[in-house]
Amino acid sequence: MIANIAGDTRRALRAGMLTLIGAVVGAVAGMAAPGLAAARADGIKLGYVEFPPYTQTDGGAAKGSLIEAFDKAAKAAGIAYTAESAPARRLFSGITEGEFNIFLGIRTVKEFDGTTLISAAPIARIELNAYGIGEAPAVKAREDLAGKAVIALNGYSYGGWRAWMEDPANKVQMVDARTADQALQLLQAGRAPTLLQYSLPMQQALGGKTPPDLKATPVQSLDVYIVVSKKTPDAEAVLAKLEAGFKATQ
Predict the structure, then answer these.
(1) Both 217 and 130 in a single domain?
(2) CB atoms < 10 A from the CB of 77, how many?
(3) Residues ≥6 apart with Cβ < 8 Å to 177
(4) Same domain, 144 and 191
(5) What highest taxon heads this organism's lineage (predicted)?
(6) Distances (CA, A) of 36 to 28, 74, 77, 119, 235
């Protein structure tokens, strides 16, 4: 009987120890959980529009020259991030509301007034040119395209130029192209005397070989800035880190 009592006592002690260990583990896990959640929430969200080859979605992932530059700067700054594509209107409102933390682009969006922090200097420049074969197109303003045929890529707004060209009152004959390569082929085939195109996709279409009869006229230059939503935690510090990251990687 004494042996039975001793056995029962040992079993009770073991059960008590297991309960105590379980409680300690549970308490530690409970204390660790907020820290883990905070670590997951530390990453910022970069919002971008579909603007190849600068920013685009390829195979479900964010790609493009500006995405690559941002990735290098973010890594240099020690900043974790995710990237999501969105239409421009939703992206701009999302920046002001804090749905998105970062945007790389122009700073003159009206929604950004008073709601964002913007880098002191541009991180890149996007150049829009008018291309022609034989002689440079005489294009300095969109009004110079009135009554003419113009090759343009589908999906590009050209900073408001497309809306103006599509207005029947301006009598522009639009020749649409699906890709930069096709746009160049249409120009060389004489489908229109002028191709409106950004410099980087044109360089990619040319593949390093510029025809001697291809001429270009600068039309517009857009500076690209880091735009940070003021609703981003430690927004000023995030902007400062990214500015330093771009300086270190350029």
Answers:
(1) yes
(2) 19
(3) 151, 152, 153, 154, 183, 186
(4) yes
(5) Bacteria
(6) 12, 21, 21, 31, 21
Look up tokens 């020259």; give the residue.
65
Distance CA 62, CA 68 (A): 9
Q: Which structural domain, as residue segments, surrounds residue 75?
A: 45-124+223-248
Considering the domain boundaries, does residue 100 fall inside one?
yes
Residue 74 in any domain: the answer is: yes
Structural domain includes residue 52: yes
Name every residue whose Cβ is closer than 8 Å to that of residue 200 and which is 6 or more positions away in sequence: 53, 54, 65, 126
Q: What is the DSSP string of 199-249?
A: HHHHHHHHTT---TTEEEEEEEEEEEEEEEETTSTTHHHHHHHHHHHHHHH
User: Are residues 104 and 81 in contact, defined by beta-carbon separation less than 8 angstroms?
Assistant: no
131: closest CA among 214, 222, 221? Answer: 214
Token match 């996709």: residue? Answer: 201
Question: For 54, which DSSP code?
Answer: T
Under the banding of pLDDT at 50, 70 and 90, the label for residue 152 is very high
**Tell me: the pLDDT tens digits for 231-240?**
999 999 999 9
Confidence (pTM):
0.74
